[in-house]
Write a structure and sequence with these properties.
Layout lengths: L13 H22 L7 H16 L1 H17 L7 H24 L8 H22 L4 H12 L4 H10 L4 H26 L6 H6 L6 H14 L6 H20 L3 H17 L2 H26 L3 H13 L6 H19 L11 E5 L4 E5 L5 H34 L3 H20 L9 H22 L10
Antiparallel strand pairs: 1-2
């Protein structure tokens, strides 16, 4: 039987793309030279970006892998408003993505939805777009609508990722390496940020207040995936690098002081421990102990006499997880406020960009908030019951595909990756009760990788003609 392969996605011809970039970039550089000559030192950077972008458009794999790495500054760096740097990164990620979709839909005339679960994702996104009507009718901010629709647009990276992995499911190794590079950049940046903020700290509250959050899911993902596969890797060099990275990620996760991710990372390690053979269970126990020791030593080296405050803050996060914890009380107040708004319009919702009035214990006044810690209530309030159900239908169908893929996958390494992925998807469902994973950019990237890989295994099993031999 003659096997067919999926063609590489070179967007149009290389000459046309090079000409278009030349036509666009030369006038821009000329304008900058004439009006902003003191910034001429930035021109080589602009040229380099143009060259990289050229390779992005002509090489599908290059774009997929570098886009994952490019998420690092979007995830890690928090800024007021939108910076030029963020615009450049978004341009780098979304322009090729838009061209890929245009080519698939209008040039090759292929459907991007391969199964019923994809239909629910597209329905969800259509509801997100349509919510602009409700946003305008209810006099909410169109700018906030645009900001939120951009975040939900990140889900579309799932489609090219799936095609890339369907060509060869073993490419998940390259995807995970790119994600690992991104995570390492974020971890080092977070450690630098935390160390800088602690420079003048002398009291416990300053240590706690300087924590760097919002990237915990990245570290949980990396820790669980590495532990799942590390004992199946033969190369001692690669194994040593992975073990050092686990120490770095564990340190970063501890310094986030986030209870839910720390708890689910522990549960994930226990879950994986039960899946290992007896000889590997002993190894896991030993190495997890080593990871903890490495993390503690790293914190003592980086933070010296402030380390005791860090451990005190970590312990207090768990000891104060009770009814008098002000953060828990704050979320109860928030939940009551958003539920009242949901019941006023439960079917259609209020539209993306919608804000609700709630009391803030920290400032002791009422404020307008467009963010909710409960991911399910967040989707219900913004997009109505239809938006919530369409997303959850998509999510659970993809979860079923992961379970089926675990059953049919025979390669031990890929099977372990899928098992780790299954736990992460389930943990996101639970964590979303207190933190909206469905709206966080790092979580969206993680879920897209998991869904794409699960689909690639499933598709290759039932349609082997799409599969290319293992690249090694």
């Amino acid at each position: 039987m003659i096997e067919t392969t999926i063609k590489k996605n070179n967007f149009f011809s290389q000459k046309k793309i090079l000409f278009i970039l030349f036509v666009i970039e030369i006038p821009i550089l000329s304008y900058l030279i004439y009006y902003y000559s003191p910034y001429i030192f930035l021109f080589p950077i602009i040229l380099i970006f143009g060259i990289i972008f050229y390779f992005t458009l002509i090489n599908f794999e290059f774009w997929i892998l570098t886009s994952i790495i490019s998420f690092a500054p979007l995830i890690a760096i928090k800024s007021e408003g939108i910076t030029i740097f963020e615009i450049a990164i978004a341009f780098y990620i979304f322009i090729p993505l838009a061209l890929w979709l245009i080519k698939k839909l209008f040039i090759e005339k292929e459907r991007i939805n391969k199964n019923i679960s994809d239909f629910f994702l597209l329905s969800f996104y259509f509801i997100c777009l349509s919510s602009i009507i409700l946003t305008i009718i209810n006099n909410f901010s169109v700018l906030l609508w645009f900001k939120e629709i951009i975040v939900f647009s990140c889900y579309f990276i799932f489609f090219p990722l799936r095609e890339y992995l369907t060509e060869n499911k073993y490419r998940i190794k390259k995807v995970l390496i790119s994600f690992g590079i991104m995570s390492t950049i974020i971890a080092l940046y977070n450690l630098y940020q935390y160390r800088s903020r602690l420079a003048l700290a002398t009291q416990f509250y300053q240590v706690w207040g300087s924590r760097v959050g919002t990237t915990e899911q990245v570290f949980m993902f990396c820790i669980l995936v590495i532990i799942a596969i590390v004992f199946l890797i033969k190369s001692k060099k690669i194994k040593s690098i992975l073990l050092l990275l686990v120490g770095l990620f564990l340190t970063s996760l501890i310094l986030s002081f986030t209870r839910s991710y720390l708890i689910f990372t522990i549960f994930g390690i226990i879950y994986l421990w039960f899946l290992f053979e007896k000889k590997d269970k002993i190894k896991v126990s030993i190495w997890v102990t080593i990871f903890l020791i490495i993390s503690f030593i790293t914190m003592f080296i980086l933070f010296d006499n402030l380390s005791k405050f860090i451990f005190q803050a970590l312990i207090n996060r768990f000891l104060t997880a009770k009814s008098n914890d002000i953060s828990i009380i704050q979320r109860v107040i928030e939940t009551e406020a958003i539920i009242k708004q949901i019941f006023q319009n439960p079917i259609l919702g209020w539209g993306l960009g919608a804000a609700f009035r709630r009391y803030d214990l920290f400032f002791e006044l009422h404020i307008m908030s467009y963010y909710a810690h409960n991911g399910y209530l967040y989707l219900w309030y913004k997009l109505g019951i239809l938006g919530l159900l369409s997303f959850l239908s998509f999510y659970f169908l993809k979860l079923m595909i992961i379970i089926k893929s675990i059953r049919i996958e025979e390669n031990p390494l890929l099977k372990k990756i899928l098992q780790a992925f299954l736990f992460i998807l389930i943990s996101f469902l639970i964590i979303s009760i207190t933190s909206p994973q469905f709206y966080h950019k790092p979580s969206i990237l993680i879920m897209s990788i998991i869904w794409a890989f699960g689909d690639s295994v499933y598709i290759n099993h039932f349609n082997p003609s799409t599969h290319i031999e293992n690249e090694g």
